[in-house]
Amino acid sequence: MTGPRRYYITTPIYYVNDSPHIGHAYTSLACDVLARFKRLDGFDVKFLTGTDEHGQKVEKSAEKAGVHPQAFTDEVSRRFSDLAAFMGYSNDDFIRTTEPRHIASVQALWTRLVEKGEIYLGKYAGWYSVRDEAFYGADELTTGADGGKIAPTGAPVEWVEEPSYFFRLSAWQDRLLRFYDEHPDFIAPTSRRNEVISFVKNGLQDLSVSRTSFKWGVPVPGDADHIMYVWLDALTNYITAVGYPETSGDYAKFWPADLHMVGKDIVRFHAIYWPAFLMAADLAPPRRVFAHGWWTNEGQKISKSLGNVISPYDLVQRYGLDPVRYFLLREVPFGNDGDFSHRSMVNRVNGELANEFGNLAQRSLSMIGKNLGGQVPTPGAFTAEDDELLAAAAALLDKLRASFDRQAFHEGLEAVWSVVRAANVYIDRQAPWALKKTDPARMGTVLYVVAEVIRQVALLLQPVMPGSTARMLDQLAVAETARDFTAYGQHLAAGTALPKPEGVFPRYVDADEGGAA
Ligand code: MSP
């Protein structure tokens, strides 16, 4: 292993003009699973999330609510930190862009960019979308039903003319293209990488990085009429949280970040602007940006106006926290768009969690309880079939490492489930219930093999379903100290007394007989 075993992962920081919904929960969940996985695998992890609290959109929302923007953001930011706690996210820090540490950091970065000649004062005249907090070229716009101009995202744009500082983005085109070329894993999945590269190849214009027409933002050092463009402010959170402008300590330890997890809508900011800002300031760009897809609800785009926004609280109340966490990462190849439907949720919960994994554990542990005095049996010599199943389980850790390092959660979980299914086939064929009379020693061996597979599967699933797997490992009397991946290759000790087993994954029963979610 070269280099230090440290891992820095970030979620986007969430706008505080909205209540948290399934999309926010999803981005953070993916990060939580990776953070937990890496911690179990011995890495020193920093997992960052937080809120993006400046900008015209927030200023307008606060005005509408009749409160000062700070009071407004205090309230909404709390909803996001509450969601993180509710979903069991293990973030090590929660950053808010209104914090003094962040304002100091973003002003330091600005000053550095000015010193390097990367920022100049000019005048902006062009189209701006408050909803996206983004500038658009005239060629990107269409005309809406009411005659107004519309951005490619569907957001309305307005004509803006004001003095503005500009970042010399146009000068970074070739260096960015070279950077993508030299770092083929920097943007994933490939479709997004291609999108970004072709956007940059089409030519980059200098970027307006300050505004004068509203106040809610970080003041530009030395020119109090201007506040900074919210994306320059927001992206900088990733270095603030490791102590920038201090470049020793956590910065030296954790920067560059290993992964910025983002949704597909904000890949341009992370894969073009952000590395350009950093390189212009002589700071290292992050190692990787992964853009995941978007969820729809029962086939429909999720939107407030359609009234079909999925609340993570409702989902968890209905199906349970761990099943929701499992479903979101299992259902859709990570990177693709996905559809949430009640039926597919119930299929996963009842099929994979309750029937395949839950029952496997419940029936084998019950048999150990009833027939073997509730103690881990002493295995006899292993047969070829025992060895085959044990080898498949033993190989899972490396498979998961490889899949999760590519953010291919669905692939990793499918590999785990192929072993769960193989264990079900095994137990049916070995029929330990029949061996009870004919060959009790062999029954012990079979149940030992299955218990061992359950232990390994439960260890691996901890990042995805922390609560349920903890209960399962309790039932196998696995010590707290034997739950990280260094214990993966250890074995259950024969003779260990096991507590009475209890079902961990209940079946979902529709109270209203199949009603839609
Ligand atoms: N504030 C910016 C990010 C700044 S990062 C320096 C922002 N915030 S956001 O609150 O609008 O969105 C945060 C994340 O939620 C994005 O990654 C976005 O893709 C994700 N989602 C919002 N709706 C979603 C779905 N329907 N499905 C999946 N994720 C979606 O952008």
UniProtKB/TrEMBL annotation:
Residues 376-512 form the Methionyl-tRNA synthetase anticodon-binding domain. Keywords: Aminoacyl-tRNA synthetase, ATP-binding, Ligase, Nucleotide-binding, Protein biosynthesis. Signal peptide: none annotated. Residues 7-364 form the Methionyl/Leucyl tRNA synthetase domain. PROSITE patterns: PROKAR_LIPOPROTEIN. CDD domains: Anticodon_Ia_Met (cd07957), MetRS_core (cd00814). It is an enzyme of class 6 (ligase). Its EC number is 6.1.1.10. The keyword Ligase applies. One of its GO terms (biological process) is methionyl-tRNA aminoacylation. One of its GO terms (molecular function) is ATP binding. The keyword Transmembrane helix does not apply. Gene3D superfamilies: 2.170.220.10, HUPs (3.40.50.620), Isoleucyl-tRNA Synthetase, Domain 1 (1.10.730.10). NCBIfam families: metG (TIGR00398), PRK12267.1 (NF008900). This is methionine--tRNA ligase. It comes from mine drainage metagenome. The lineage of its organism: unclassified sequences, metagenomes, ecological metagenomes.
